[in-house]
Prior knowledge:
single chain, Jelly Rolls, about 0% helix
Amino acid sequence: MITTDAGTRYGPGMQVVQGAHEFVLPDGRQSNYVEHLRVPDLSLGTYCIPADGVDGQQPHTEDEIYVVLRGAARLVADSGETPVGPGSVVFVPAGEAHRFTDVTEDLSVLVVFGPAEHSRG
């Protein structure tokens, strides 16, 4: 069973994910995460931070893959740091502290969690 961000449930099989490339930031927010897909082994969402915004995330209990869709920033982690921009793909292991800094252009990042986010204690 697949559940989308709209709460629609689908049976097993292919699902086209809509809106994963969009920059969405409600008024007054420093960042925004929208989950688009959740199955037991992974979840998929879009994380957006405006230029000069603040990334306040904490380490996750799941592995993550970030795919930068738009914008420019620096990803700083316990194990190092790297500039990121459109096309950057970065893996961050579960438990490693990390955050986006120096966001110079509105940042939109596709995030894949394995297993699904918050599925581990």
